[in-house]
Amino acid sequence: MDWQNLDKKMNSLRRCMDMGDYAKARPLYEQLQAEYSSKNDSGVEYKAIGGELAEIYAAMVVETNSQQEIPAAIAQLQGFAGGAYHGFLVARLYWQAKRHLQALGVLEKLCQLSWQEDKPVIPQENDFWQASPGEKEVILNLLGQGYKYFGMAQQAAQCYRLASEVAIYFPVQAADYSNYVFTLHYIFMPQWEYVEAHRGYNALYSVLKPFIHDRRQLKRRQKKRGKLRIGYISPDFRRHVVLLFIWVMVTKYNRQDFEVYCFSNSPTEDEYSKYIQKQVNFWCNISQLPLRDKALLVYQQELDILVDLAGHSRDNCLPVLGYKPAPIQISGIGYFATTGLQTVDYFLSDKYLADGCAMIPAENNQVIDENLQATALASSESFTEKLLVLPHSHFCYVPIKEMPPVRQAPCMSKGYITFGSFNNLIKVNDVVLETWGAILRQVPESRLLLKCASLDDADIQELFRQKLLSLGLPEERFQLRGFSVDYLPEYYEMDIALDTFPYPGGGTTCDALYMGVPVVTFGDGSHGGNFGISLLKNIGLDFACSYSVEEYIQKALLLAQDKELLNALHLGLRNMMENSPVMNEKQYMQELEQGYKRIWQEL
User: Fold this and answer.
1) What's the pLDDT at 46?
2) Is the pTM for the entire model greater than 0.90?
3) Does one domain contain both 370 and 230?
4) How many CA atoms lie within 13 A of 262 on its CB side?
5) Residues spanned by the domain of 259
């Protein structure tokens, strides 16, 4: 074999892979693979080339999402021995093939993973420790995804935390840490632990140098302009559940007093994105820019206020806010707890969320006048930001697609009560399931309907089937359904929706209510945990709010016993929502924009 020529070709292939140029990489790979396959050499160096080619092929299949090539890529990898990254690629291919349990098993075996006091332990002699920082990070990140997928939130959170610790590049560290703190909200923890974990996020930001803003110059600039320039930054200006809550912000603003600039951090744009572009003063898709270029572009637009709509959710823009590209920065809507980031000044809230946030010092609350036209500012030990408290709801719900009409409660014709939840199953922890089981055992003939995309996975479905059976519920009393695009008519089969805790529903709760299905919710006293409380109180459904597991069960039982009330709610809830602050677009925008004006005046 011509080793010198081979080495040149391999280097060219490696460069193409590093640059993500898979169109050029593939013919190079195919040529080298053909040459390799035609030889018969048992040397160590020869076998090493074969192993590397197998890894390159696997990486190409993963990055190009070539589903039909997955079996061949797995078989090729299994033909060679390899280290930790080699094993990771096998697991990643299984994951891409939706063989999630198999992928998780490969990673656990690869790392010889064990758990001590809820912390992952990998033996020091394991090949994992010989891997590069980047390889360690992707292994731990995929482990986190795997545990999260199967509802093992504690394990997922710790893997994400470790992934952030081993990563060496700031954007990767920040993304993994966001996954860590986000996942913590599925776990029952003291509030102070959540806050401390979020404060740790800010420690990553010492590598950034924020922009400097001169207050007097800012005031002169805005006075000359005559309008407040508001920027919104989000990965969700597209078909996404968060869009239901931010639609009015970018389409119904006061054009006499405000300019709106939108920065999209998603490569995906659709008909909703295109509509928003026509409504705002400025639109830019920043998803493909390097981090500092994103921040510089935002800074150059001379915003007065920048509003982050994602928090620690997926593809978030908090690292952009770390550069402080606007003099006033707010976070809210897409996340329900503090960002932990010191460059974020305010967090969007409402009176019900703030009242439920037990650690708000009373002396820091300003009185909201009786007409609820003022916006209160509060600081809380639960937040590194000040709370920007709106007088009614902190969001405005807009069903942006045509919704099916409401119908009578299904119990009126079926003769039994159907409880249900369409929430992500990681929210349905064992305590929630046991609580639901207690409810169903006390309502004769009642049923439980669970629907979620992950229930398309046979392993997940079997896991939940066994859990429900263990609660004493025979199979004829529950249904487990997977994903469907047109899911809203399935609310016609549900009498009462049961909210999850400690992580309550958001879009699913609004959809259920708008389809006429009353929701029993549980507020745990935390800002995010009271989301359902705020929503129900804003629409006048206080009697479905609870503050303990016992009260939650009792409220569900009382509703189930009154079929006439249930039917009236099914027929009337939509009207209640449409006539409430939750869907009052004009009132919401007036209160929000009044808040913007106030914090600008206080700059």
Assistant:
1) 66
2) yes
3) yes
4) 24
5) 208-396+585-601
